[in-house]
Automatic annotation (TrEMBL):
This is Histone-lysine N-methyltransferase ASHR1. It comes from Caerostris darwini.
Amino acid sequence: MISVSEKITHSYCPMFSHFSATEFHELMKNSFGEACYCNDCSQPYGTSTLTKILNPELAVQVIEKSEKVTSVVSLLSHLKYPMDVITQERLKEILEMQEGVLADTHLFRIRILAIKCLLLNGPLNEMRNELLTLLEWVKNAWGPHFNEIAAIYMKLIHVNLSLRDFYSVNFFMGKLHHLKGINEGYP
């Protein structure tokens, strides 16, 4: 049952679109005009939910490397070129480099993990754990009814089917149907 207070969350910056962190921050400010006083727009870059930096000394290098990878993935995706240029190991290195430097809700942290989980395949148990982490990060950044969570639920269903974990398959199918029901406005 969907309660009246549940609403789907949309973002002006999907997980896979290519904006630099600075462009994203400006986009959010400009999308709503200078009169926007929401928590994210009113905070300086590096302090809002999607741009939070934990270690400013290391952040520039980490953001540059993250930006390069997301740029390559964006370009490959637009050209419909195979993603085999990007490896699971390289993405894992970047995620480890980001740890303690960028917050878990930082856009680049979410994007790199989303690329690793949703665009590439790896060992099933590792994928399941990383998908659950991605789900948590996305919910913390955009809320539990963010429309792009559907892709995470679908991948979790696929991975759990491969692992023959039918309880989890049913659980995430229920979550996916609930999310789609909210998106389509079912009572």
